[in-house]
Design brief:
mainly alpha; Ferritin; elongated; DUF2383 domain-containing protein
Amino acid sequence: MKIGLALRELHRSENDLAHELFQVSERHKVDHEIFYVARDLAVWSQDHVRKVAAIADSYGEKLDHEPEGEFGFMERVRDKGSELVGRARTPDLLLLRDLREIFMKAAGVSVDWELLAQAAQGIKHRDLLSVAEECHPDTLRQMRWANAQLKVQATQVLVS
């Protein structure tokens, strides 16, 4: 079975999504909705990482049960440096890019959850299906939030 590989990819993707949400939160601190909601959504992905790691043990995968944390000091310095080099001149365009990135990563995670749910149904593994059914709606919510923010921000940013 290749379910272990799918779980490993989902684990990596959820960690990556959480990391991206934390980065966007940090980059857009002045926008309180972006800051706080992105952090809340990142915590959801961190919770998913724990659940994926727990179920992966049953499929022969040893995944880290602790999600990657927020990025450290050096990553913040590098991120700030890259902003200063060019991206900081257009913070509103950066926000659109960041929201698009969140949407795309969440869409990828959503597909991973769907694949896993289909496999779980196919082999009649109720525990795996239960995890997918519990976590996938959160990922869909992350996508909807990013999409809604893109709609709210796009006109003002692109027309001004």
